[in-house]
Design brief:
The protein has about 230 residues and is an alpha/beta fold. It has one domain: Class I glutamine amidotransferase (GATase) domain (Rossmann fold). Helix content is about 20%, strand content about 25%. The protein has a nine-stranded mixed sheet with strand order 2-1-3-4-9-8-7-5-6. Strand 7 and strand 8 form a beta hairpin. The longest helix has 14 residues.
């Protein structure tokens, strides 16, 4: 098992968010060494490539499939767009953990790769959403390292009214909110990699929630292969 802080790339772009509130949440997780950056900078970092990180947290909302329709590099497509496509297609080639957070679940709406990665059939702007909802979160698996000892909690957040995670997903958190998907957090496997998907996380009402911080922190630890959960409640 690796020691030290978990080197974590937090990949953004395509959606606005509360930068200060989000960064404050990341800084509250002492076991995490987080580096927020947009997709472009992540792929084209002049000093360190994507392989530098233990965990990749996708917090992006790009809708256009990289490098053209269905992910295919078409004539006239820039080489840099092709490099983004190549990087994303390499997810799961190793054991680098993959975290899809909030609107990243709905990114790349027409790309089968992201559908397989997320375990969600409908994404993008398909389906409805509702802001500032009080959502009660229940624990579906009380033994998984991410949710062990975690108590049910309430959170004020944006909900998505779209398809639930598919049958290949292991469900950790659920809700019965009438304007929300039932599955709130789940794990998957993508190639050789662990995947953690978590729907909460629209604004600072969520970022400052102790339950949210605990789930995010433990999710990153689990993706990095750390066995001891940390409670931020």
């Amino acid at each position: 098992m690796k020691n030290g802080k978990i080197k974590t790339a937090v990949i953004t772009g395509g959606h606005e968010y509360d930068v200060v509130g989000f960064q404050s949440m990341l800084r509250s997780l002492p076991e995490i060494d987080a580096y927020p950056q947009n997709m472009w900078d992540f792929v084209f970092d002049s000093a360190r490539g994507p392989g530098y990180y233990d965990v990749l947290v996708f917090f992006n909302y790009h809708q256009s499939t990289p490098a053209g329709k269905d992910g295919k590099l078409e004539p006239g497509t820039s080489k840099k767009s092709g490099a983004i496509k190549e990087m994303l297609e390499g997810l799961g080639d190793g054991d680098q953990g993959i975290f899809l957070l909030h609107h990243a679940l709905k990114a790349f709406a027409d790309w089968p790769l992201w559908r397989e990665l997320s375990g969600m059939r409908t994404r993008g702007d398909i389906g409805g959403w509702a802001e500032e909802q009080t959502v009660h979160i229940d624990i579906a698996d009380t033994e998984h390292p991410i949710t062990a000892t975690l108590e049910p909690f309430d959170i004020v957040d944006e909900t998505y009214d779209i398809d639930d995670a598919d049958e290949d997903s292991h469900i950790l958190l659920t809700t019965d909110h009438p304007q929300s998907i039932k599955t709130i957090a789940w794990t998957r496997t993508f190639g050789k990699a662990r995947v953690f998907c978590y729907q909460n996380g629209d604004d600072n009402q969520a970022y400052s929630n102790p339950g949210f911080r605990t789930v995010v922190g433990r999710g990153i630890q689990w993706l990095a292969g750390r066995q001891t959960p940390t409670n931020h409640q």
